[in-house]
Write a structure and sequence with these properties.
about 325 residues, eleven-stranded mixed β-sheet, binds S-adenosylmethionine
Amino acid sequence: MTAPPPRDPLTPPLLDAQGRTMTYLRLSVTDRCNFRCTYCSPASWGGKKDLLSPEEFERIVSVFARMGIRRVRLTGGEPLIRPDIVEVAGRIAAQPGVERVAITTNASHLEKLAVPLREAGVTQLNISLDTLSEATFRRISKQGDFASILRGIDAAVGAGYASLKLNVVVMRGVNDAEVSDLIAYAHARGMTPRFIELMPFGQGTPVPTAELVERLQSTGLSLVPNDEEHADTAGPARYWRAPGGRVGFISPLTQNFCGGCNRVRVASNGDLRSCLGGRAQAPLHALIRGGSTDAELALAIRQALGEKPEGHRFNEPGANKSLLPMMGIGG
Ligand code: SAM
Ligand code: SF4
């Protein structure tokens, strides 16, 4: 009997060790940031210069897209502090196979960039805003201009994005009393608020989602689970219906979302990480600079995904010890 021909490593599907199909790439385009959020950016983290060029991002995305990646999210650090972010986004959006390009941002540069990024092909923004109070913002982030965030959000609302989400990391005793106000703020602007359990990358005490939902319901807010929507998005958020719109909860600590994982990450130094809580694997940047072909890159990607763990282990004691800071991985 003759052996079957070797499979082209560039041909979809892109499967991981658990047989899950990867369709979503999270690309950290910088590990630098103009904010210093206490839960994300340790004081000792200096960041490095941006290592990958727009052409190198394009090359990485083109290989992933040929392998079956359909959605790309640009994150960081703060992606919009890259002077070439509009070019990076445009090159990625133009790749055959890429259906959606999204960005996660702290909004500080959106006042000038919301429209150019939309025109470059970005369709979705996740905007991080943990508080409506400048004094509380100052407790959370040592740097950053609060007024520019609010102006940036208004610019995004006016720029015609298909989806705008407001990400809130909830910290006990810091911003957990503001959850109702943040829901109202987001819904008034046509945004979907999402509340995230604090993961152990920096300072602060998390509030479990179940407690948050109970507290909201005890204020008289009607919150009805919407599991159909979850099945549709396959992301980590669970959505509920409130009178003003959807409310999402992302619960890495109390509702492990790893079972349906479809995502792969490339950190800002070009290292592929198959899991948010895992170690660096294929050094894609070094491979590109070393002259690897697309097929060789695809093989390295497949090999790394062959080691993708079933899930993260943030609940285990000392979970943060071996990890890069969040701003190097990109959330
Ligand atoms: N600078 C951008 C921003 O803040 O949106 C993008 C990068 S940031 C690392 C991506 C997301 O991770 C943000 O929504 C942020 O709130 C979230 N994040 C950072 N550290 C976190 C932590 N320790 N636990 C949960 N979420 C975290
Ligand atoms: Fe910067 Fe975003 Fe991290 Fe805050 S959460 S320090 S804005 S990367």
